[in-house]
Target: DNA mismatch repair protein MutS
Amino acid sequence: MPSKAKQTPMMVQYQEIKDQYPDAFLFYRIGDFYELFNDDAIKGSQLLELTLTSRSHSASAENQIPMCGVPHRAAQNYVDILVDKGYKVAICEQVEDPKLAEGMVKREVIQLVTPGTQTDTGIGGAKRNNYLTALTKITTGYGFAYADLSTGELKVASLKNFEAVINEVMSLQTKEIVVDKSVTDDERQHLSQIGILVSHQDDVTAQSELSYLTQDVSDAAQNAVLKHLLTYVVTTQKRSLAHLQRAVVYQPSYFLKMDHYSQRNLELTQNIRTGKKSGTLLWLLDETRTAMGGRLLKQWLDRPLVTRDEIMARQRKVGALVKQYFERHNLQEELTKVYDLERLAGRVAFGSVNGRDLIQLKTSLNQIPKVQHVLGEFEDGTFDDILDNLDPNDDVADAIEQAIVEDPPISVTEGGIIKDGYNDQLDQYREAMHNGKQWLAEMEASERKATGINNLKIGYNRVFGYYIEVTKVNLSKLPEGRYERKQTLTNAERFTTPELKEKERLILEAEEKSTDLEYQLFVKLREMVKKNIQRIQTLAHAVAELDVLQSFADVSEKYRFVAPTLTKDGHQLRVIEGRHPVVEKVLGRQKYVPNDILMDDKTTILLITGPNMSGKSTYMRQLALTVILAQMGCFVPAKSATMPIFDQIFTRIGAADDLISGESTFMVEMKEANEALENASANSLILFDEIGRGTATYDGMALAQAIIEFVHNRVHAKTLFSTHYHELTVLEDSLSELKNVHVGAVEKNGELVFLHQMQDGPADKSYGIHVAKLAGLPDSLLTRADQILTRLETKDEQDKPIVAATSSETQFDTSDTDSPDTMAVSSEQTSVSETPKTDSVQAPAAFDDGEDTQLSLFGTPEPTKKHTEADQLLKQLKELNLMALTPMEVMNQVYKWQQHAKRK
Ligand code: ADP
Ligand code: MG
Model:
């Protein structure tokens, strides 16, 4: 960088401004362009595919600096591209008229556009919120707040730990989080790693004009994080925030808790493979007719309810809408014509609203009486709470109706917006313009006659004003001195006359005054609407709610859902002929086989066995989706359903089956299983799908069994546990709350046919070889596999797992329930070189294959020769007191063994 002294005044100004926004692209306005300089230009030209040029910034020509530019009219596009990519853009305008400026034109940043504050989210963005989040840390936890600047929504919560923070930011799909010094480097890094832009805002300035937003918030930490968020918003936006709604305190515990992993895994709003909406529960449920309804549906899906009364209040409305088909249909028709009231309100506040937006607002408001009318057709009381908030805002609609023409232009500064007859002065200007133009037409006609030039015409352009145009061929017909020459074109000459000049002055003056006045009238109307923003927002929310409820009803009817019965107490679960609605929709109704899910008060675990690809995972997800639908207030895909209200859902998919995270390892799988074991209550739902499959057979099976026992004896959550270890099915004999079910399959002519049907009892085989056959593996290989299988099966008796630990004779130390430090592994227990502790309460009988323990998987004939190494390992295994260890400890032990074995 050359010294400042040498720089041009403009570059000095540029640098001063750039220094205030080091982490943003600075769009520096020069005339009709925004220019980027230096590093901004180099990076920007790549990201935006612009030509990189250079500019001399000093007197000497050799010092060139890189630059690139975009025309200001097209700037929005470029800003959006950068912001969508996670960057910030500072828009720097000329804030005084260059003609009047003395020296350098004054420039200021008028807005900092960031991923979380972007309000024009473009096509497809209407049904999504764009949330800006904020985080601060206090000794007891975290203050967390979020806002959507386009709709004005503002929420705040206290969160216990960082895990909860991650869950919130993932489920809100925030693109930007504002933090202060209290948030550690590690935490910031974690947030950036999951793709969130971390913005720093350390000073908090009092925003007195926004203090009403926080008046319902008493908690100090929540207040602090809100101030923090608002300071950031004010400093970046520099524009009216009148549409921000009073902060609402929420607590994640008011809702059915699902971590983001479960949300993704169940494909609630995002398809695992494509990341898109298609193929998700949201996709199935979305029959909303308005953008507001679309966004609210997603919010409800992210946060199903846990309070029976609230759920039933929604369910009753859905029931009424299902029953009254014609009214529902009418309601949909009326809602279709309601525009995005929330975002219109936002634009009013920002002052970015135009004539067309106001017409949309009016049209929407005019729909409300029709909506009220339809709701009147329902039984009294059904929709009272919604009707209370359906205020058509007549005064606002009338004011717009009177002022704005039906089809206004996009621009608000070029006239043509205000109706005739609305304002006397405006009418007079328009009259003058009209008369002037009339006069011009008459002049044109009379001049043609006088000169005999039939194509003589009177025209207008911005630079030269009004002119009389005569083509060159006809010039000879023109009497010398009739007009004054004004401009020469290739084929024509343009002229004027003193009269024409005078008319021009009058017309242009009237035009200018008229557009000025129109703009003033428009702004006045806008301010009037602005005063009513809160009423419009209340209305918007009521409309959104109604829209989601009709969508539920629509879907419930279309896919034959029923109203679930939610029990007040007890843990009975009875889903008759339940379906996975999304799989059913994709496969087609004919192909989908419905299934019952039956768990009485005393059953906590369903152990699901069955061949690969038979429908185990689908069955488990089916239950989770049914629970989520029920607790959202929607009907459920079944013939009938009775269920308790769940507090949390955990889903863990075995690493081998985990489609989501390529990086998923067995360790991750175990950590996540542990998360469920630690946090689930007796009112939770756990889905463990082939857990333990990510490791070798025996340790996987050992872990699976230990986990089942732990859930059975300690957690008592309703649990669906699918496994390909059919050996585990014997647990039913010893664990009273466990029930076996399996997916039926039949072999026909050596081929396997899946019935996709759940049946009581254990599966007899794992059918893996048949699946391999279907997949077309070579015959010789399959024959060999069959041989090995037969050999293994003759050992079947010994392979059965050990007798399970039951609650009466539990081996788990129940005294440490409050400190579930299951991750901690005591070193003396796991060191392979030492002899493990030999409490030998119960010698583990499983895995004990006797002397000829080496299975000849790879063709070595039995008996095998003994390896002292293997013997030692086996001895340790035998002596290991499995029941005294937590799953994590077992896992660590097995891991050490494996490491040890690999070194050999
Ligand atoms: P698993 O977990 O047992 O390997 P999945 O649940 O992944 O099996 O199901 C495999 C496939 O079987 C699914 O993709 C789906 O196409 C089909 N399927 C599953 N359940 C059913 C059902 N109830 N009716 C019809 N097809 C089903
Ligand atoms: Mg599966």
Q: What stands out?
A: The chain has six domains: 4-113, 124-254, 286-393+543-558, 424-526, 565-770, 870-904.
